[in-house]
Amino acid sequence: MAAETHELLSVERSELAAHIERIEAEGRANGSASISFGKRIGDGTSIAVERLNELAILERLTKQHRSVVRAEEKLADGSYGTCDGCLQTISTERLDALPWAIHCLTCADLEAVPGEDDPPPGSPRADGPRSATADTSSPWDIIT
Ligand SMILES: [Zn+2]
């Protein structure tokens, strides 16, 4: 069984590496090493957006690649199936679904939330509820 997992991880790792390489090569071919947001709103913008999607995919693949590499390490040192975060056993259901899982569900959830994508918790409430409409000294107006 361990040998199968090893095989599975190694196949997954090379597939991910190939995929990552392909996206990076495409990026180079498109000549968009740096993303410039369109001076023209039109083609430039959609290309930039497309490129951003690509980067998001690339980031996801890179992250998964790291997990696979780490899972292989864990397989080698005997800690495979144990969460890297809290040292609890990762459920077999989870490992079946995600053989390169290196965190239990709880820790994976924590990892998956970088905090950057969090929407603001609500409308700004600097000084009391519902006074912003009458109050022109809202902090948001001072910017210009
Ligand atoms: Zn954990």
Would you write up a description of this structure?
Helix content is 53%, strand content 0%. With 144 residues, the protein is mostly helical. The protein folds into 2 domains: 1-79; 81-130, no CATH class. α1 packs antiparallel against α2 (43-77). The N and C termini lie far apart (64 Å). 8% of the residues are buried. Residues 115-120 have low confidence and may be disordered. Zinc ion binds at residues 83, 85-86, 88, 103-104, 106-107.
In short:
The chain is an all-alpha fold and 144 residues long. Helix content is 53%, strand content 0%. The protein has two domains: 1-79; 81-130, no CATH class.
Bound molecules: zinc ion
Radius of gyration: 22 Å
- List the secondary-structure elements in sequence, H or E: HHHH
Unreliable sequence segments? 115-120
Keywords:
about 140 residues; about 0% strand; binds zinc ion; single chain; mainly alpha
Show the helix and strand layout.
Elements: H1 2-29, H2 43-77, H3 92-97, H4 105-112
Helix pairs in contact: 1-2
Bound molecules: zinc ion.
